[in-house]
Amino acid sequence: MNNSKGSIEAEISKSLTQWEKTFLGRGSIAVKTDILRDMIIVSLQGILTEAEYSLCDDNTKLLSVKEYRNSLVESGIDQIKEIVFTHTGIEVLSFYTDISTKTGERVMVFKLKEDLQSKLS
Questions:
Q1: For residues 116 and 21, what is the distance between their CA atoms, to the nearest angstrom?
Q2: Residue pair 20/14 in contact by the 8 Å Cβ criterion
Q3: Which of 12, 57, 116, 119 could join 33 via S-S bond, C-beta 3.0 to 4.6 A?
Q4: For the chain, which domains are there?
Q5: What are the two backbone dihedrals, phi and then psi, of residue 96, each rounded to the nearest 5 degrees?
């Protein structure tokens, strides 16, 4: 494991993109990972398909798209946590995610057992 903050962030982004392609069938357009204290914050751009965007014009369907997409990610949570552990060596305590049906961006937040940023400083 390369211990620089930037290299860990880049490796997590790369691994999550590969996970999306393998597990979900398609990857995001861009991924940015940031280590902040005991959290890893990941922003994924270009998550929704054109068909999903068209459904998001209706509030009921919008909620269905969000729920479906979040369920897909949650079904692979063990693999996602393993990706973070592999690159950081620190256990994930909790995971939060949501998707914007306006921008097609997903945000993932991993709360770690230890402060990773201070270990890297």
A1: 27
A2: no
A3: 12
A4: 5-112 (3.30.980)
A5: -130, 145
